[in-house]
């Protein structure tokens, strides 16, 4: 990015663009200020008082994930790998989101826990709770740094400010509205940001397709460029996984991404679960991820395709530049795949539309970072500070402490932003983090939820050794014991972490004492009465179109069709 700035590749913004971006910032801070009036307790601040309708939490569920990971990361992946990137949505998200709504949310919402680590404490005890709380908090700071770095990159290209100044200013804006209004401010802004992002990316995609001669023109250009025709079909995705064998590539995508990484992220990641837990009823909580699945399955068309267009039309990413980046070398132009969307905006969008697009990008990074901050402050305040360090204080004390923690997290994210800046494709960085933190947690969760015999000692030891095994795989790849291009290393690390966690948990369980059945009601599937998992079907939850099972079936049929077509 420094090279790009030095090469004077500033976006050609005019007054109208700056006015639109400034208006958006004012709107965001205004929502934070208005949401503050609804915050009178720590439950209001951390979980919106469990009062929001399903359509609001459903859109926030998706928007919280529409941060750097989705918009810049997936467009970078689109530029590098093409359509196989759609697996992160159709295989690596939708099935797990539906599983969360149908199977897992009744346990989360029904048990009235305030966070995912709190669920771990009830199921496995303090050791597993503390391990999960600390690892989750660390992951959120690292991921917030990635969102913050990309947010600063946009400000750098728009205004020409140094990266460090852009990072600090961006962090202050997100901190202000999150600290003012808590989760409600984050969620209402995420709903706004969802529409702003779509308004920014749909025109960019349409204009881009017109420039390359429509879909067929894009097909021709991609086929004749580095990467070739393999980038036009989602299966078998060899370039993405790094496997030359089609069978191993499909296996890596289905098991590594589609099962371990995907279910690990969507079903246990409190950033997402927190939005559903802010719903006003069990039915609304279950519908939250299912409603989110519908826009989620079509987002590839407005983030991946612009990346593919950038790779065949943007001078800094075409031809030998793309070939050098795919080979893991620096491009002669100094650009990276992370720049794909910004450079496409620079080349295609007229002033005014450019301002909307920049506001959309800023919206996506702010949504992602705010989601990281709002989940971090909840877990750190409730699960670490209140549980182990300062018990039995007043509710006002925890509310004020939560605001202070939000500020501290923003400062830490400024530091981790510089770690993220060292990666040419941020998806590589983020998938590595997910393999460390989410894959072993999912193994512990799924085993503990369906196997009542699993003991408290197995809960924490599986997590620790599962995470350690993923880190080991990462280190081995870095020192050259084995090398895989693409994101294959992350898929392998996640799969190894999952298997190690399961094996360790089973072995430790056999040698240790389980909890009594009476302590596991509401926490283990077989010991929870069916009535406790059911939801209301009257009042605001009435109507066939509000039935979680039916909605999930429709979403699943659509995503299967997309996999077949592409």
UniProtKB/TrEMBL annotation:
<feature type="transmembrane region" description="Helical">
    <location>
        <begin position="549"/>
        <end position="565"/>
    </location>
</feature>
<feature type="transmembrane region" description="Helical">
    <location>
        <begin position="15"/>
        <end position="35"/>
    </location>
</feature>
<feature type="transmembrane region" description="Helical">
    <location>
        <begin position="47"/>
        <end position="68"/>
    </location>
</feature>
<feature type="transmembrane region" description="Helical">
    <location>
        <begin position="158"/>
        <end position="180"/>
    </location>
</feature>
<feature type="transmembrane region" description="Helical">
    <location>
        <begin position="353"/>
        <end position="380"/>
    </location>
</feature>
<feature type="transmembrane region" description="Helical">
    <location>
        <begin position="463"/>
        <end position="484"/>
    </location>
</feature>
<feature type="transmembrane region" description="Helical">
    <location>
        <begin position="401"/>
        <end position="423"/>
    </location>
</feature>
<dbReference type="InterPro" id="IPR018212">
    <property type="entry name" value="Na/solute_symporter_CS"/>
</dbReference>
<protein>
    <submittedName>
        <fullName>Solute:Na+ symporter, SSS family protein</fullName>
    </submittedName>
</protein>
<keyword id="KW-0812">Transmembrane</keyword>
<dbReference type="InterPro" id="IPR001734">
    <property type="entry name" value="Na/solute_symporter"/>
</dbReference>
<dbReference type="GO" id="GO:0005886">
    <property type="term" value="C:plasma membrane"/>
</dbReference>
<feature type="transmembrane region" description="Helical">
    <location>
        <begin position="429"/>
        <end position="451"/>
    </location>
</feature>
<feature type="transmembrane region" description="Helical">
    <location>
        <begin position="490"/>
        <end position="511"/>
    </location>
</feature>
<feature type="transmembrane region" description="Helical">
    <location>
        <begin position="88"/>
        <end position="109"/>
    </location>
</feature>
<feature type="transmembrane region" description="Helical">
    <location>
        <begin position="130"/>
        <end position="152"/>
    </location>
</feature>
<comment type="similarity">
    <text>Belongs to the sodium:solute symporter (SSF) (TC 2.A.21) family.</text>
</comment>
<keyword id="KW-1133">Transmembrane helix</keyword>
<feature type="transmembrane region" description="Helical">
    <location>
        <begin position="289"/>
        <end position="312"/>
    </location>
</feature>
<dbReference type="GO" id="GO:0005412">
    <property type="term" value="F:D-glucose:sodium symporter activity"/>
</dbReference>
<feature type="transmembrane region" description="Helical">
    <location>
        <begin position="247"/>
        <end position="268"/>
    </location>
</feature>
<feature type="transmembrane region" description="Helical">
    <location>
        <begin position="192"/>
        <end position="210"/>
    </location>
</feature>
<dbReference type="Pfam" id="PF00474">
    <property type="entry name" value="SSF"/>
</dbReference>
<keyword id="KW-0472">Membrane</keyword>
<dbReference type="InterPro" id="IPR038377">
    <property type="entry name" value="Na/Glc_symporter_sf"/>
</dbReference>
């Amino acid at each position: 990015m420094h090279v790009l700035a030095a090469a004077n590749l500033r976006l050609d913004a005019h007054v109208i663009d700056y006015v639109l971006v400034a208006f958006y910032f004012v709107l965001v801070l205004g929502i934070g200020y208005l949401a503050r009036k609804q915050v009178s307790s720590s439950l209001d601040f951390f979980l919106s008082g469990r009062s929001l309708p399903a359509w609001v939490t459903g859109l926030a569920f998706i928007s919280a994930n529409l941060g750097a990971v989705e918009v810049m990361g997936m467009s970078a992946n689109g530029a590098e790998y093409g359509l196989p990137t759609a697996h992160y949505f159709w295989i690596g998200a939708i099935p797990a989101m539906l599983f969360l709504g149908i199977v897992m949310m009744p346990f989360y919402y029904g048990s009235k826990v305030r966070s995912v680590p709190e669920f771990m404490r009830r199921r496995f005890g303090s050791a597993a709770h503390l391990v999960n709380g600390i690892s989750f908090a660390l992951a959120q700071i690292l991921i917030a740094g990635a969102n913050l770095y990309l947010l600063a990159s946009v400000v750098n290209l728009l205004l020409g400010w140094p990266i460090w100044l852009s990072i600090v200013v961006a962090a202050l804006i997100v901190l202000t509205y999150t600290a003012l209004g808590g989760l409600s401010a984050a969620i209402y802004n995420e709903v706004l940001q969802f529409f702003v992002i779509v308004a920014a990316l749909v025109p960019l995609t349409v204009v881009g397709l017109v420039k390359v001669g429509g879909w067929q023109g894009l097909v021709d250009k991609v086929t004749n460029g580095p990467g070739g025709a393999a980038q036009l079909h989602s299966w078998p995705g060899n370039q993405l996984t790094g496997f030359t064998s089609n069978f191993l590539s499909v296996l890596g995508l289905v098991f590594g991404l589609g099962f371990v990484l995907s279910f690990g992220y969507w079903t246990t990641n409190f950033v997402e679960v927190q939005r559903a837990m802010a719903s006003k009823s069990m039915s609304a909580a279950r519908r939250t991820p299912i409603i989110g699945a519908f826009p989620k399955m079509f987002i590839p068309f407005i983030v991946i395709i612009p990346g593919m267009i950038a790779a065949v039309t943007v001078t800094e990413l075409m031809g030998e530049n793309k070939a050098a980046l795919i080979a893991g070398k620096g491009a002669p132009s100094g650009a990276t795949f992370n720049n794909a969307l910004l450079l496409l905006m620079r080349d295609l969008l007229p002033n005014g539309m450019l301002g909307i697009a920049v506001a959309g990008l800023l919206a996506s990074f702010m949504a992602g970072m705010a989601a990281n901050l709002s989940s971090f402050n909840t877990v750190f305040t409730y699960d670490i500070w209140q549980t182990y360090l300062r018990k039995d204080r007043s509710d006002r004390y925890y509310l004020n402490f939560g605001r202070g923690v939000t500020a501290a997290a923003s400062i830490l994210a400024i530091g981790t932003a510089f770690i993220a800046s060292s990666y040419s494709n941020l998806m590589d960085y983020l998938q590595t983090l997910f393999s460390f933190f989410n894959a072993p947690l999912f193994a512990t969760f799924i085993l503990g939820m369906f196997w009542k015999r699993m003991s408290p000692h197995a809960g924490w030891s599986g997590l620790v050794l599962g995470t350690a095994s993923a880190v080991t795989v990462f280190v081995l790849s870095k020192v050259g014991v084995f090398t895989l291009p693409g994101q294959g290393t992350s898929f392998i690390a996640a799969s190894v972490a999952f298997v190690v966690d399961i094996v360790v948990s089973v072995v430790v369980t056999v040698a240790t004492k389980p909890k009594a059945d009476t302590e596991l009601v509401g926490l283990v599937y077989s010991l929870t009465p069916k009535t406790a998992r059911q939801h209301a079907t009257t009042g605001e939850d009435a109507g066939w179109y509000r039935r979680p099972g039916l909605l999930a079936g429709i979403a699943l049929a659509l995503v299967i069709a997309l996999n077949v077509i592409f």
